[in-house]
Structure formats: structure tokens, C-alpha cells
Amino acid sequence: MKKALFVNIVCFLLVSLVGCGAKEIQSQAYITAIGIDFVDGEFVVYTQAQNFANIAKQDGTTSLQQSVPSLIGEAKAKSIQAALNTLEQNAALPFYYGHVSSIILSENVIKNELDSIIEYIGQNPFLRYNIWFLGTREDIKEILLGESFFNFPSLYTIIHNPESLIKNTMTIPIKEYNKFISSYNQPAGSFIIPSLSLNDASFSEDDKKNKVPVVSGGFAVSQQRYKGWVPNEDLVGIKWLSKEANKIPYNLFEDKVSLIMEKPTYTIKVLDGQTPSYHLTLKMNAQISQNLDNIGYSKIVKEAEKKIKEDLEKSLQKSEELQVDLLNLSEKAYRYHLKDWDLQTINSISKESIKKIDVSVKIIKTVHYKR
Questions:
Q1: 3-state SS class at 57
Q2: If DSSP states are collapsed to H, E and C, what string results for 146-183?
Q3: Whole-angstrom distance between the N-terminal and C-terminal Cα of the chain?
Q4: 43 bridge partner residues
Q5: Burial 264-288 (b: 16+ CB within 10 A, else e)
Q6: pTM of the entire structure?
């Protein structure tokens, strides 16, 4: 009897303690993105918080979406944490950083303060290493206020949700912070931090133009140093050597032919010589989604292979201009041929570094019209 009473009392106490200290969802400000600039010797820190009550209402809704605002905080100080402390002291609700999914850096920060960013992320227990790592040359606050479609919150923009774009409409790879930190201290190769800008020319809802965050280029970082900003048109070769690419839309013959290139695979062979050079072999399947003039398959394949080679050569030429290996060719020489050349020679990149490019495109499917 006493034992049964004891068990009942313990159970009662455990039940009464459940939820003790737990906070309701509306009692905290949930930070989803952090933006960091560096101006006149001070860090300018931005926080983006979402209204989770409104987000929850979207599941299963059939009515017209009401606008879901983002709450943007802004403060500056000599250190990142000091700026965040200032924001938290002036906030109506305590901040919670466990839902941060992306960090956006200004060009000034990428140029001069990457070590401070690494230190801050490493010391904050709530920031995960798989957050998206992004940059911008525009006003960070405006980027954080960028719109999604149909009044959906910012969580449905490329800032927080780039996975489907990476796989299906890739321009350049968008990678997590852990990929950056693993390459930051490497003595060869480079990392491209995607550069965001606002596009207000492509989409409108009713008569209002949507300001949508898009990738407009990238910041090249190599051997712990900022090498320069590169626009999308000079990064066209990178997608062909990306393991993340799943489907790449590709237009030929003045947009009369549209292809979907599927899962490119490649091999890099290091060639002997005074300086390292490379033989690049690239293979992929393609689907024809449009062929306005009924151009023959062999002609399409030949043109696709030629254009892909030109894409790679264009990015290689930009590598030579910036003296940075945008295509990460030198990683192979560094890992397997370090005895053949010194590090400085391995890192020397020119438009002659690729001696041979073999591209093989195989058309596996073409469009069939509905009957």
C-alpha cells in the first residue's frame, strides 16, 4: 500500500513539473537569419525574425494569404556579440537563435572580417554548422526584407530554402557553412560565397512588382583571403563541375532549343609538365524540352558540347584574371601530386591550365505533345 502511494506521489510530482520553465511559442522572438556588415570600424548586425503564429496558419489554408511581415532588428558595435546584446536589451521579447538558417555577409565583411565571423559562429552554441552561408553587395536590410510569392514569408525565399533551386535550376552552388569552413584553411582551391541581389523585373502580383532575392554572382575566397566578386556570367563553368547539380536548364541556337542537362559527372586527370595542367572529361544526359525548328539530334549534341566547353573556358579565363582557381582544378594536383610541384606552382592558374576538354552529351528523351 505504501509502495503504491509512493509511486502515485512521484507520478503526480513528475506530471506537475512537465512544462515547468518551458516557453510558449509567442513568448520569444525566433531569429531566422543574421546579416552582418562592417562600416567605419564597427559591425552593423541585422536580425530577421518571423511571426510563427502566422506561418502556422498556412498549413491547409485555402483562403487568400495575408501578408506575413518579417521583423528586422539593427544595431552596431565594435563586436558582433555586443551589437546583438544591444538589440536584445531593446527587444520586447527574448531572442532565440536555434532557428537561424542563414548568415548574410556584406562585401566589407568578406574582405576584412571573415575571421571574426568564424569566431562568432564557433562560439555561439545555437548556430548550427549547416546554416546557409551567403553574401551581398547590396543593403543587407533590403535583402532581408525581400519578398516571396503569394504573400508567403521570407522562409520561402532563396535565403532560407535554396535546396530545390540548387537541384533544379542551378546557376552556382549554394553551400552550407560547414563546407566553407572545411575549405577556408585549405592551401589550394577556392570557395564561392553566393552573392544575393534583389530582382524586381521578373515577377509581379497584380500591379505590384515583387522584389525577390536572387543569386547574381559570387565572392571568391581562397587560402583565407578574399579574391574578388564574380558575376554569374563568368561563373557559368562552375555548375558543370558541381556534385550538387541535378537538372540544369540550357538553351541553344538563340533559345530555339531548350535542354535539361541531368547530373553531370566528370573526371580530372593531372598531366605532367613544368606546371600542372589538366585533362577534363565531362559526361551527362539531356532531355529536349523545346526544339522550335526541329533541329537534328546530332547538331544539338555538337552545339551543346561546344557551348559547355566555352562555359568552362570562360570561368578559367576569369580564374586567371583574379588568380584564383574558380573550378577547383588544383585540388587534384595538391592531393595527389604534391611531390611533383611546390604549392605556389600548383596554385598558378591560367587559361592554358586545361589542355584538353572532352564533353559527351547523350540525348535520352525528347518532348512529346499531348494528344
A1: coil
A2: CCCCCCCCHHHCCCCCCHHHHHHCCCCCCCEHHHHHHH
A3: 79
A4: 38, 77
A5: bebebebeeeeebbbebebebbbeb
A6: 0.87
Alpha-carbon distance of 146 to 212, in angstroms, equals 5
> What are the b/e assignments for 65-95, b being 16+ CB within 10 Å?
eeebebbbbbbbbeebeebbebbeeeeeeeb
Cell of 350: 591560367
> Which residues, in sequence order, are CB contacts of 51 under 8 Å at separation 6+?
68, 69, 71, 153
Q: Which of 279, 271, 289 has the alpha carbon at shortest distance from 309?
A: 279
Average confidence score pLDDT of the chain: 87
- How far apart CA 34 and CA 95 sit, in angstroms, is 12
Question: Mind listing the pLDDT tens digit for each residue in 330-352?
Answer: 999 999 999 999 999 999 999 99
Entry field: residues in the chain: 371
CB 188 within 8 A of CB 178: no
The angle subtended at Cα 24 by Cα 55 and Cα 98, nearest 5°, is 70
> What does the alpha-carbon distance between residue 262 and residue 279 come to, in Å, rounded to a whole number?
22
| Cα–Cα distance for residue pair 65/125, rounded to 1 Å | 35
CA distance 298 to 313: 23
